[in-house]
């Protein structure tokens, strides 16, 4: 039995044909980001096994999207942590992009118990009604459950485990890498580093967790990100240095705004996005997630 399974979360079978009519994940892009920008990238599923699955957690099944090569098994495993908009089409596409590279990629709908943000059209409403009510402890437990699920399929190798996430999920990458030292490598795309307001549900942010971080994390940030100022990036660099952490790095793209990888939004910056994606692949390979 795996170390994570000992924490009490059993594996769960994949979604069956009869469940396809009751798919629980958002379809298409979240309403708040429409109309979708012309720069959107669409990755097909030819040569892949891709689609919605359900994973078992302590409080019942939760939907997730997973993609992997159609042929072969024991693929390196990458958790893809959603943006603030949930597991909508962009996050599913990221999973397919990773699957095309030979990974088993899985993204859990981490807001499932609190609500469907894909239907909301106001950022403040998304936070007030859903995001502010999502405990970090629930998120970390659900990611553990995703690892167990992936391993139970016989197609994923949890000894080669990586995690990447965007925006809201970028912060979770730093947090999960502290929570699960079995992760080999993390890549955090423009995730918050310093708390604007602490709550009991989100008690610690990356700058406070730095002394406990043993997993090598690559941070990818935008120099024009108004929600994550450069002084927060420097605080994180200083915290890592003070902790003697020489394996984690932060790259800043001076002209990039927040969400520069989000090709379906006006914030997309092709050069920074492509360089970040290349660096992510190199980081995974460097640390054995290949």
Beta-strand proportion:
15-25%
**How many helices?**
7
Quote the average pLDDT.
92
Q: How can the largest sheet be summarized?
A: 8 strands, mixed
- Contiguous uncertain segments of 5+ residues: 1-22
Cα radius of gyration in angstroms: 18 Å
Termini gap: 23 Å
Q: CATH class, please?
A: Alpha Beta
The tally of strands reads: 8
CATH architecture classification name: 3-Layer(aba) Sandwich
Widest sheet: strand order? 1-2-4-3-5-6-7-8
Element order, helices and strands? EEEHEHHEHEHEHEH
Instruction: Supply the number of structural domains.
Output: 1
Q: Specify the oligomeric state.
A: single chain
Task: Give an account of the 3D structure.
This protein has 290 residues and is an alpha/beta fold. It has a single domain, classed as 3-Layer(aba) Sandwich (Rossmann fold), CATH 3.40.50.1820. Helix content is 28%, strand content 19%. It has 7 helices and 8 strands; from the N terminus they run E-E-E-H-E-H-H-E-H-E-H-E-H-E-H. The protein has an 8-stranded mixed β-sheet with strand order 1-2-4-3-5-6-7-8, sandwiched between helices. Helix 6 links the parallel strand 7 and strand 8. Helix 3 packs across helix 4. The longest helix has 17 residues. The radius of gyration is 18 Å and the shape is globular.
